[in-house]
Known about the structure:
Blueprint: H1 3-27, H2 34-54, E1 57-59, E2 62-63, H3 68-78, H4 80-90, H5 92-98, H6 103-121, H7 129-132, H8 136-157, H9 166-190, H10 194-203
Antiparallel strand pairs: 1-2
Amino acid sequence: MEPAQILTWIAEIVIIIVFGLVLRRYVSKKKITVKQIAFVGIMSALGTALALVSFIPIGPNINIDLSHIGTFIVAIALGPFYGMITGTLIGIYPMTVFGNPLVPVGKALTGFVVGLLATRLRLVGEEKEKRRIPKIVPAVFVGWIPEAVFILVTLGILGIPTLFPMPVVEGILVKGSGEIIFLGIVCEFLFASKALRGKLASLRANQ
Protein backbone atom coordinates (compact mmCIF):
# COMPACT_ATOMS: atom_id res chain seq x y z
CA MET A 1 0.00 0.00 0.00
CA GLU A 2 1.36 3.39 -0.99
CA PRO A 3 1.99 6.12 1.63
CA ALA A 4 -0.74 8.31 0.12
CA GLN A 5 -3.28 5.50 0.50
CA ILE A 6 -2.22 4.91 4.10
CA LEU A 7 -2.62 8.62 4.88
CA THR A 8 -6.03 8.58 3.20
CA TRP A 9 -7.35 5.77 5.37
CA ILE A 10 -5.82 7.22 8.55
CA ALA A 11 -7.40 10.60 7.83
CA GLU A 12 -10.76 9.01 7.12
CA ILE A 13 -10.67 6.91 10.30
CA VAL A 14 -9.83 9.95 12.42
CA ILE A 15 -12.61 12.02 10.85
CA ILE A 16 -15.12 9.19 11.23
CA ILE A 17 -14.23 8.86 14.92
CA VAL A 18 -14.71 12.59 15.46
CA PHE A 19 -18.03 12.55 13.59
CA GLY A 20 -19.05 9.47 15.56
CA LEU A 21 -18.47 11.23 18.87
CA VAL A 22 -20.52 14.20 17.66
CA LEU A 23 -23.31 11.89 16.51
CA ARG A 24 -23.34 10.02 19.81
CA ARG A 25 -23.73 13.24 21.77
CA TYR A 26 -26.47 14.47 19.43
CA VAL A 27 -28.44 11.23 19.25
CA SER A 28 -28.41 10.89 23.03
CA LYS A 29 -30.42 14.13 23.24
CA LYS A 30 -32.78 13.60 20.31
CA LYS A 31 -35.57 11.23 19.41
CA ILE A 32 -35.22 9.90 15.87
CA THR A 33 -38.50 9.08 14.12
CA VAL A 34 -39.35 6.81 11.21
CA LYS A 35 -40.50 9.85 9.20
CA GLN A 36 -37.13 11.53 9.64
CA ILE A 37 -35.26 8.39 8.58
CA ALA A 38 -37.52 8.02 5.53
CA PHE A 39 -37.01 11.68 4.62
CA VAL A 40 -33.24 11.28 4.80
CA GLY A 41 -33.45 8.17 2.64
CA ILE A 42 -35.60 9.89 0.01
CA MET A 43 -33.39 12.99 -0.15
CA SER A 44 -30.26 10.83 -0.32
CA ALA A 45 -31.77 8.93 -3.23
CA LEU A 46 -32.69 12.23 -4.90
CA GLY A 47 -29.16 13.55 -4.49
CA THR A 48 -27.67 10.35 -5.87
CA ALA A 49 -30.08 10.38 -8.83
CA LEU A 50 -29.12 13.98 -9.62
CA ALA A 51 -25.46 13.01 -9.39
CA LEU A 52 -26.06 10.25 -11.94
CA VAL A 53 -27.88 12.62 -14.29
CA SER A 54 -25.70 15.69 -13.84
CA PHE A 55 -22.23 14.12 -13.84
CA ILE A 56 -20.91 15.74 -17.01
CA PRO A 57 -17.15 16.15 -17.49
CA ILE A 58 -16.19 19.79 -18.09
CA GLY A 59 -12.46 19.39 -17.58
CA PRO A 60 -9.80 16.95 -16.31
CA ASN A 61 -11.17 15.43 -13.08
CA ILE A 62 -13.88 18.13 -13.05
CA ASN A 63 -17.53 17.09 -13.32
CA ILE A 64 -20.82 18.86 -12.78
CA ASP A 65 -22.42 17.54 -9.58
CA LEU A 66 -25.81 18.68 -8.28
CA SER A 67 -26.12 15.97 -5.63
CA HIS A 68 -25.88 18.42 -2.71
CA ILE A 69 -29.51 19.49 -3.23
CA GLY A 70 -30.54 16.55 -1.04
CA THR A 71 -27.96 17.48 1.58
CA PHE A 72 -29.16 21.08 1.73
CA ILE A 73 -32.86 20.24 1.95
CA VAL A 74 -32.32 17.85 4.84
CA ALA A 75 -29.77 20.05 6.63
CA ILE A 76 -32.05 23.10 6.46
CA ALA A 77 -35.15 21.13 7.41
CA LEU A 78 -33.79 18.86 10.15
CA GLY A 79 -30.44 20.23 11.27
CA PRO A 80 -26.76 19.17 11.40
CA PHE A 81 -27.13 15.51 12.40
CA TYR A 82 -29.42 14.56 9.54
CA GLY A 83 -27.58 16.85 7.13
CA MET A 84 -24.34 15.06 7.91
CA ILE A 85 -25.89 11.61 7.41
CA THR A 86 -27.42 12.68 4.08
CA GLY A 87 -24.15 14.19 2.88
CA THR A 88 -22.36 10.94 3.72
CA LEU A 89 -24.86 8.81 1.81
CA ILE A 90 -24.86 11.16 -1.18
CA GLY A 91 -21.07 11.03 -1.28
CA ILE A 92 -20.98 7.28 -1.90
CA TYR A 93 -21.62 7.48 -5.65
CA PRO A 94 -18.98 10.15 -6.44
CA MET A 95 -16.60 8.23 -4.18
CA THR A 96 -16.90 5.21 -6.47
CA VAL A 97 -16.59 7.39 -9.59
CA PHE A 98 -13.42 9.18 -8.49
CA GLY A 99 -11.97 6.41 -6.33
CA ASN A 100 -11.61 8.88 -3.46
CA PRO A 101 -12.81 7.52 -0.08
CA LEU A 102 -12.75 11.02 1.40
CA VAL A 103 -15.59 12.35 -0.79
CA PRO A 104 -18.34 11.26 1.68
CA VAL A 105 -16.39 12.95 4.49
CA GLY A 106 -16.31 16.27 2.65
CA LYS A 107 -20.01 16.11 1.82
CA ALA A 108 -20.86 15.10 5.38
CA LEU A 109 -18.94 18.14 6.58
CA THR A 110 -21.08 20.39 4.38
CA GLY A 111 -24.28 18.77 5.62
CA PHE A 112 -23.24 19.28 9.22
CA VAL A 113 -22.18 22.93 8.87
CA VAL A 114 -25.18 23.92 6.73
CA GLY A 115 -27.49 22.24 9.25
CA LEU A 116 -25.77 24.04 12.09
CA LEU A 117 -26.13 27.40 10.36
CA ALA A 118 -29.75 26.69 9.44
CA THR A 119 -30.53 25.90 13.07
CA ARG A 120 -28.70 28.90 14.49
CA LEU A 121 -30.18 31.30 11.93
CA ARG A 122 -33.60 29.63 12.15
CA LEU A 123 -33.91 29.56 8.38
CA VAL A 124 -37.08 27.50 8.57
CA GLY A 125 -39.15 28.79 11.46
CA GLU A 126 -42.70 29.76 12.10
CA GLU A 127 -42.00 33.47 12.49
CA LYS A 128 -40.96 36.06 9.94
CA GLU A 129 -40.53 33.51 7.15
CA LYS A 130 -40.27 36.08 4.38
CA ARG A 131 -37.41 37.83 6.14
CA ARG A 132 -35.46 34.64 6.81
CA ILE A 133 -35.74 32.87 3.45
CA PRO A 134 -33.20 35.14 1.65
CA LYS A 135 -30.53 33.91 4.09
CA ILE A 136 -30.48 30.43 2.56
CA VAL A 137 -28.09 31.16 -0.34
CA PRO A 138 -25.37 32.76 1.83
CA ALA A 139 -25.90 30.11 4.51
CA VAL A 140 -25.35 27.16 2.16
CA PHE A 141 -22.37 28.88 0.55
CA VAL A 142 -20.71 29.54 3.90
CA GLY A 143 -21.61 26.00 4.96
CA TRP A 144 -19.80 24.63 1.90
CA ILE A 145 -16.54 26.52 2.61
CA PRO A 146 -15.17 23.86 5.04
CA GLU A 147 -15.62 21.21 2.33
CA ALA A 148 -13.87 23.51 -0.16
CA VAL A 149 -10.93 23.88 2.22
CA PHE A 150 -10.97 20.12 2.78
CA ILE A 151 -10.73 19.56 -0.99
CA LEU A 152 -7.93 22.10 -1.34
CA VAL A 153 -5.88 20.57 1.46
CA THR A 154 -6.39 16.88 0.61
CA LEU A 155 -6.14 17.06 -3.18
CA GLY A 156 -4.04 20.16 -3.81
CA ILE A 157 -1.60 20.23 -0.90
CA LEU A 158 -1.30 16.82 0.77
CA GLY A 159 -2.16 14.71 -2.27
CA ILE A 160 -4.62 12.49 -0.41
CA PRO A 161 -5.44 10.16 -2.10
CA THR A 162 -3.94 11.74 -5.26
CA LEU A 163 -2.13 15.02 -5.77
CA PHE A 164 -3.96 17.13 -8.34
CA PRO A 165 -2.32 20.04 -10.19
CA MET A 166 -3.40 23.27 -8.49
CA PRO A 167 -5.20 24.56 -11.65
CA VAL A 168 -7.40 21.45 -11.55
CA VAL A 169 -8.17 21.95 -7.85
CA GLU A 170 -8.97 25.60 -8.51
CA GLY A 171 -11.28 24.52 -11.34
CA ILE A 172 -13.07 22.11 -9.00
CA LEU A 173 -13.57 24.86 -6.42
CA VAL A 174 -14.79 27.44 -8.95
CA LYS A 175 -17.18 24.89 -10.43
CA GLY A 176 -18.34 23.92 -6.96
CA SER A 177 -18.99 27.54 -6.00
CA GLY A 178 -21.30 27.95 -8.97
CA GLU A 179 -23.16 24.74 -8.14
CA ILE A 180 -23.65 25.73 -4.50
CA ILE A 181 -25.05 29.15 -5.41
CA PHE A 182 -27.42 27.56 -7.94
CA LEU A 183 -28.61 24.94 -5.44
CA GLY A 184 -29.02 27.64 -2.80
CA ILE A 185 -31.32 29.55 -5.13
CA VAL A 186 -33.32 26.37 -5.75
CA CYS A 187 -33.67 25.92 -1.99
CA GLU A 188 -34.84 29.53 -1.64
CA PHE A 189 -37.77 28.74 -3.94
CA LEU A 190 -38.49 25.37 -2.33
CA PHE A 191 -38.62 26.69 1.22
CA ALA A 192 -40.77 29.63 0.17
CA SER A 193 -43.62 27.10 -0.16
CA LYS A 194 -45.98 27.16 2.84
CA ALA A 195 -47.06 23.60 2.03
CA LEU A 196 -43.47 22.36 2.22
CA ARG A 197 -42.82 24.24 5.45
CA GLY A 198 -45.92 22.63 6.96
CA LYS A 199 -44.66 19.16 6.07
CA LEU A 200 -41.22 19.90 7.48
CA ALA A 201 -42.72 21.26 10.70
CA SER A 202 -44.20 17.81 11.37
CA LEU A 203 -40.79 16.20 10.81
CA ARG A 204 -39.16 18.53 13.34
CA ALA A 205 -41.88 18.05 15.94
CA ASN A 206 -39.81 15.68 18.06
CA GLN A 207 -36.55 17.62 17.84
